[in-house]
Amino acid sequence: MEEKVLQNIRDAIMNGDRAAVVALTKAALEEGISLKDVMDKALIAGMEIVGGKFKRNEIFIPEVLISAKAMQEGMALLEPHFTKHGIKPVGRVLIGTVKGDLHDIGKNIVSMMLKGACFEIEDLGIDVSPQRFIDAAKAKEVDVIAMSSLLTTSMGAMKDTINALKESGIRHKVKVLVGGAPVTQDFASAIGADGYAKDAAGAVDKARELLRK
């Protein structure tokens, strides 16, 4: 019975059915299914399936966004109970689209999927200057800085930010993850980033990997 309930939540996430995710998540908690199982085996697991489908080009950005929003509504029901149950964030991620770039759809998907994977997210939005990244990183004591760029003309801002992190003396305290349509692994390596992800699902995997190092 419990597995059926968790499967129904996973299916609702894959279908992007927000109302069903909320109703089923409430029902799961009322039936006494552990909060951790609802989170790990239903909400996060469902979003991981969606991420896998996106990696394989079986679904596209609109479907991912719809599923991510459905998952977030379910997660919002659990968050008030996290402290009581001893559930802590996997890590703290500062995310933003770099200076000179106003695109945010890809960044928003990454942000939602990281949050769904139990990362604490600080989203700076778009057109984020190196100094804003630095100020926020210091204030929030983040583990990872994730930078997005969709324009070749703004890619240089990623290098500028990494250089500014070095100059500010906090580069050794954070991992830097970069991504976006024109960004490649070669570029990430050349500018001194710690990691590169070509899509949102990959960003979650890479963020986990970076925190293990």
Instruction: Report the structural category.
Output: alpha/beta
CATH level 1 name of the largest domain: Alpha Beta
CATH superfamily of the largest domain: Cobalamin-binding domain
| DSSP helical segment count | 9
The whole-angstrom Rg is 18 Å
Coarse morphology: globular
Helix content: 55-70%
Low-confidence stretches: none
Question: What string, H for helix and E for strand, traces the elements in order?
Answer: HHHHEHEHEHEHEH
**β content, as a range?**
5-15%
Strand order of the largest sheet: 2-1-3-4-5
State the CATH topology of the largest domain: Rossmann fold
Q: Tell me about the biggest sheet?
A: 5 strands, parallel
Number of strands: 5
**Straight-line N-to-C gap:** 39 Å
- Give the mean pLDDT: 93
Number of domains: 2
What is the CATH architecture term of the largest domain? 3-Layer(aba) Sandwich
